[in-house]
Each structure stands twice: as C-alpha cells, then as structure tokens.
Write a structure and sequence with these properties.
This protein has eight helices and no strands. It has about 150 residues and is mainly α. Helix 1 packs parallel to helix 6, helix 2 crosses helix 3 and helix 6 runs antiparallel to helix 7. The radius of gyration is 17 Å and the shape is globular.
C-alpha cells in the first residue's frame, strides 16, 4: 500500500465514530461537540482542500460542462480521494441534520436510524427515506423548519 492508500483508509474510517455517535448516543454531549458542531466536516474539509488543490498537475482536461469533462475529474487517485471525502462530508452533514430534525419534531430516535444507515451508505436515498418517514410520522410533508 502506498501513501494515498493510507490517506484514503484514514479519511474513510475517520467518519465511523461520528456515525456511531449519531446512531447510539445522539443526546450525548460529545456528540453535540463533535458531530453537531460541524467539527468533523470542518476537519475533513481541510483534508479535502489539501487533496484537491494539491494534486499537481491534477486531472487534465477536466471540467463540469460535459460528461467527458466530469469523467476526467476522476482520473487521478488523489482527486478521487478528495471527491470521496466530499461525499463523506455531505453525507455526515445530512445524517446530523436528520437526527436534529427528528429531535426537533419529537420523532423517536429509532425512527431515524434506518435513514441514517441509508444516508451513510447511499446518501440521497437516506435523505429521501428520512423525508418520507418524517412526513408519515408527522402526517404532513412540510419542509419548513419552525
């Protein structure tokens, strides 16, 4: 294994404790400080920035305007790790919101756990499942946070 393999493994597994806290200790003060505060996404964001902008010369011919251009983004190992960290950050952010949203709406924590697992594994599928669960449990599908 080379250095980038180690970086990938370290970053990939760095979110596991945060997800475990969301599932098993959502009301613990440590969860508030580590997960709900945004500390983990902030630290991962630093790693993301270093990986993405430190990949020299980086993916050649990449851009966001055509499918081929987007596919070229994923042609260097370092940029692929950065893109994976992008997923890790946003999925964790969404998972933390789901737990806070359930608490705010008075929905039992066990009702959000399946959506958390889906969010960890499949991002948007988990978010969609949470939106469905909260709609069914609240008997309305309003997205306004009050």
């Amino acid at each position: 294994m080379d250095t980038l393999d180690h970086v990938f493994l370290a970053l990939n597994y760095s979110v596991v404790p945060a997800w475990l806290l969301l599932v098993f200790a959502p009301r613990w003060r440590g969860t508030e400080r580590l997960v709900f505060s945004g500390l983990v996404p902030l630290l991962l964001g630093i790693a993301y920035t270093i990986l993405l902008f430190g990949d020299h010369p980086g993916p050649q011919g990449s851009h966001f305007f055509t499918l081929d251009g987007v596919m070229r983004i994923f042609t260097t190992r370092q940029t692929v790790i950065a893109c994976w960290v992008h997923y890790l950050i946003f999925d964790l952010f969404v998972g933390a919101w789901e737990v806070r949203d359930a608490r705010r709406l008075g929905i039992p924590h066990l009702a959000v756990v399946p959506s958390l697992v889906l969010t960890l594994m499949f991002g948007p599928v988990g978010l969609l499942s949470w939106i469905a669960v909260r709609g069914v449990m609240r008997r309305r599908f309003s997205f306004v946070e009050t």
